[in-house]
Amino acid sequence: MANTACCLVVGAGPGLGRAVAARFAEAGLHAVVSSRDEARCGAVADAVRRSGGESTAVPCDAADPAAVESLFQRVERDLGIPEAVVYNAGTFQPGRVTDIEPEAFERCWRVGCFGGYLVGRRAAQGMLGTGHGTIIFTGATASLRGGAGFANLAVGKFGLRALAQSMARELGPQNIHVAHSIIDGQILSERHADLASERPEDALLVPEAIADQYLALHRQHRSAWTHELDFRPWVERW
Predict the structure, then answer these.
(1) What's the mean pLDDT in 22-51?
(2) Which CATH number applies to 6-228: 3.60.21.10, 3.40.50.720, 1.10.3720.10, 3.40.1360.10?
(3) CB atoms within 10 A of CB 54
(4) Tell me: the pLDDT tens digits for 83-138?
(5) How far, in Å, CA of 151 to CA of 143, rounded?
(6) Distance between CA atoms of residues 200 and 221, nearest Å
(7) What tens digit of pLDDT does each residue of 132-178 get?
């Protein structure tokens, strides 16, 4: 097994996932980025490398137990056990409860919650061997309340938050820091660039600003670990 300081970002798209990978790479970790779409995670790795960091793309369906095991085996073989793992994957198909098809509901839950369990479990198994590590789960406003038309999102995010709490209580005494974030607002990305032009300055969450705090979570002294952080722009009501 290799021994290169690395992090793993699962659910690495062009917004927060890319920002987190770039920030950890800037801090000296080799950033492994993963998503189900090979071209998408490849583009994220390319962007990290262009910014001066080291990055590798490994496609993976986070809701597939065998694929997750293969992902971790490859990372551990080529680089070593990740010092930090970020679960940033999610999917959402809006719909009224009376109209949501069972298949769609299960698919959203599998990505939003079950995948977090698979990745978090496998990350913890490796970190228990090294005696340290950080696991961060990305949540949302829906982690705290289920809105009308948002059952597909809220159920998975509620479950992910519960998973993070249980893992934090189990793994903290083993020197593994488990944290959960509440993303309460729209994240600025290329896809939502038009929204930024229509709203006041800094009305959308800047992904690099969130990434700074993810790295800070990883660097926290264990005498003052934070379990949950909520992020919202100054214009957001709460």
Answers:
(1) 96
(2) 3.40.50.720
(3) 17
(4) 999 999 988 788 899 999 999 999 999 999 999 999 999 999 999 999 999 999 99
(5) 11
(6) 36
(7) 999 999 999 999 999 999 999 999 999 999 999 999 999 999 999 99
Q: Are the CB atoms for 41 and 57 separated by under 8 Å?
A: yes
Residue 116 Cα to chain centre, angstroms: 9
User: What is the average per-residue pLDDT within 200-216?
Assistant: 94
E strand map for 53-202: 55-57, 84-87, 133-140, 176-183
Neighbouring C-beta atoms of residue 33, cutoff 10 Å? 33
Write down the pTM of the prediction. 0.95
Exposed/middle/buried for residue 230 (C-beta within 10 Å: 0-12, 13-18, 19+): middle
Domain ranges in the chain? 6-228
Per-state percent for the chain, helix, strand, coil, to nearest 5: 50, 15, 35
What beta strand segments (E) does the chain contain? 6-10, 30-34, 55-57, 84-87, 133-140, 176-183, 228-231
